[in-house]
Amino acid sequence: MRVMMLGRGLLTLLAPMAVLCGAAGAQAACAVGSPGATVSVDAGATGRPFLLRRPASLAAGQPAPLLILLHGSGGDGPRMLAASQLEATAERHGFLVVAPTAAIPAGKGFAWNIPGVPTVTGKIPDASDADDVAYLAALVDGLVAEGCVEPARVYVTGLSGGGRMASWLGCVASDRYAAIAPVVGLRAGNPRREKPDEPDPATCQPARPIPVIAFAGDTDATNPTQGGGAGYWQYTMHAAEQRWAALNGCQAPPTTQWVAPGVYEERYSGCRDDADVVGRMTVGGGHIWLADNDALWAFVSRYRREGR
């Protein structure tokens, strides 16, 4: 096994790979990777390494907030990290970013396991497929045990299928993640079988309110904001926002405002635990990473998960 440093979009082999053991006990100073470097980390017994960026701006060994970046269907962690440009954002704001890779083969890459939902290949995950909720939990727990991560400040973003996976984590693991930020992939549960233009409440029952900021483009033909598309999609982005607002107990009427040229924001506030729901729409935007990374971080970093 080897450590891999990411530079200029290429992976270069350098030295033995860092290993997360996830061992219990007192936290030591973080020794995973080096400040200012992106390394490949072996997530203990999972056999699935992930990329980790530890910014130079962080104090040596200091536990830091963590942003998990999930690639789209058919992608992988290294390509997603390069496309998102979140390494530069992490340097500016002082947080760790990790880019794992899913395990279900899909095209030239992989897809995430969202139970009961077919991947882009049409395969419905079964018991033989990796449990990605458990895998990502193990990834976080390992970094916490190594003294690298503040457990109350773990956030998830992702593109397309990775955005759907981030949404799923909000549904089933709200006690672990402090906020989610799907990009061209916001969902609030699976479509209803009998009425697919609505989210099925039985498939998204978070234990706590979870803040949401979502980014999308109004000309996205893959995950159309107006609904339709593949069987796993169907209902509109607006319906997803409304469902999250209901789950979070948001009381104030939604507000809409332009926040940048060609970008408007719909916000639901007055929510339990101040867990706002925000949708940012890029006029003319398609199925790409179109998040404003600084706005994404400004939103999620406001939140801490209580009790962790």
Word description of this protein:
The structure is a single chain. By secondary structure, this protein is an alpha/beta fold. It has one domain (3-300): Rossmann fold (3-Layer(aba) Sandwich), CATH 3.40.50.1820. The chain is 20% helix and 26% strand. It has six helices and 15 strands. An eleven-stranded mixed sheet has the order 3-4-5-7-6-10-11-12-15-14-13, sandwiched between helices. β13 and β14 form a beta hairpin. Mean pLDDT is 90; it is low at 1-17 and 22-26.
Blueprint of the fold:
Layout: E1 3-7, E2 10-15, E3 18-19, E4 37-42, E5 50-54, E6 64-70, H1 77-84, H2 86-93, E7 96-99, E8 104-106, E9 109-111, H3 132-145, E10 149-159, H4 161-172, E11 179-183, E12 212-217, H5 237-247, E13 255-260, E14 263-268, E15 277-282, H6 293-300
Parallel strand pairs: 3-4, 6-7, 6-10, 10-11, 11-12, 12-15
Antiparallel strand pairs: 1-2, 4-5, 5-7, 8-9, 13-14, 14-15
Quick overview:
The chain is an alpha/beta fold. It is 20% helix and 26% strand. It has six helices and 15 strands.
Proportion in β-strands: 25-35%
Any idea how many domains? 1
Give me the Rg, rounded. Answer: 18 Å
CATH fold category name: Rossmann fold
Can you write the helix and strand succession as a string?
EEEEEEHHEEEHEHEEHEEEH
CATH class: Alpha Beta
What strand line-up does the widest sheet have?
Answer: 3-4-5-7-6-10-11-12-15-14-13
Give me the count of strands: 15
Query: What is the terminal separation in angstroms?
Result: 33 Å
Largest sheet: 11 strands, mixed
Please give the count of helices: 6
Name the average pLDDT.
Answer: 90
- Amount of helix: 10-25%
Low-confidence stretches: 1-17, 22-26
